[in-house]
UniProtKB/TrEMBL annotation:
Cited SUPFAM superfamilies: alpha/beta-Hydrolases
Protein known as: Endo-1,4-beta-xylanase
Species of provenance: Paraferrimonas haliotis
PANTHER family, per database record: DIACYLGLYCEROL ACYLTRANSFERASE_MYCOLYLTRANSFERASE AG85A, ENTEROCHELIN ESTERASE-RELATED
UniProt-recorded Gene Ontology molecular function terms: acyltransferase activity, transferring groups other than amino-acyl groups
InterPro entries per the UniProt record, alphabetical: AB_hydrolase_fold, Esterase-like, Mycobacterial_A85_antigen
């Protein structure tokens, strides 16, 4: 177990249905945080949606800048399956870790795949070892969702990404320091398609706005996956690289995961 310590917020003093977890991780040798929504559900074995944030952000931005909980509650009223929403910090490296294993800088992949998984299972009673996990993200978090979802394909039941960085080199569009600060950034294993073409990935979709500077990179990834015969969905939508786009289109992630979850439940 890589978790050294957990601190979990008291629901009596927390925003409604929201929990904050501070994890002292040996993968990062420091503390980082996770926000969980629908944390007090009385259901059992609920499916989990991991939402990864972009550069500059942290565990709180999906809710407090993107209103993701409001989108979720609106869709619940329309019949969406119940999920637990898990929003972790990226690990706090520079302006963004890209959710990578960066050698001496820290293993930000295992922070998500081991520490976040374990912390949620330990502290959220609605989540168990039987719960299915889905992953989504925006911008750098979209990259994290694509990479982790394909690399750890047996751990996830679906992948959805919005406005994604598709290659770590694209971080240069968002940070003002040289990318050599990221150890081994050029590794082939840091490309989603490296893992996707190996096959047996879960259902995959991604989208990007027509006015987004990452649109061409997303189209190129779509073409690479298509040529490799990787089953996936790609949508070019209206909008740019901005919170109004993500607030609107995270609904597509929820509906995509809802369809998959209903298929599992029908088995």
């Amino acid at each position: 177990m890589s978790i050294l310590r957990l601190e979990v917020s008291n629901p009596d003093y927390s925003p409604a249905n929201t929990q904050t977890i501070t994890v002292h991780s040996s993968h990062l040798t420091r503390r980082h945080d996770i926000t969980v929504y629908n944390a007090q559900s009385q259901a059992k074995n609920l499916a989990v949606v991991v939402l990864l944030h972009g550069v500059y952000g942290n565990h709180w931005v999906w809710m407090q800048m993107g209103g993701v909980h409001q989108v979720y509650e609106r869709l619940r009223q329309q019949g969406l399956q119940e999920f637990v929403l898990v929003m972790p910090s990226d690990g706090g490296y520079m302006d963004g870790s890209a959710y990578l294993d960066l050698a001496e800088a820290g293993n930000y992949q295992q922070w998500i795949m081991e520490d976040v998984f374990a912390a949620v299972q330990q502290s959220v009673t609605a989540v168990s070892e039987r719960s299915r996990w889905y992953i989504s993200g925006l911008s750098m978090g979209g990259f994290g969702a694509l990479l982790l979802g394909c690399q750890f394909s047996q751990r996830f039941s679906g992948i959805s990404a919005h406005s994604s960085i598709t290659n770590p080199s694209q971080l240069s569009q968002f940070v003002d320091y040289p990318l050599h600060c990221y150890p081994q950034l050029e590794k082939a294993e840091h490309l989603p398609q490296y893992w996707a073409v190996k096959g047996n990935i879960p259902p995959l979709r991604f989208d990007c706005g027509a006015d987004d500077p990452l649109l061409l990179a997303n189209i190129e990834l779509h073409q690479i996956l298509t040529q490799a015969g990787v089953d996936h969905e790609f949508e070019q939508l209206s909008g740019g690289h901005e919170w109004p786009y993500w607030h609107k289109n995270v609904e597509k992630s929820f509906r995509f995961f809802d369809v998959i979850e209903r298929k599992y439940q029908a088995l």
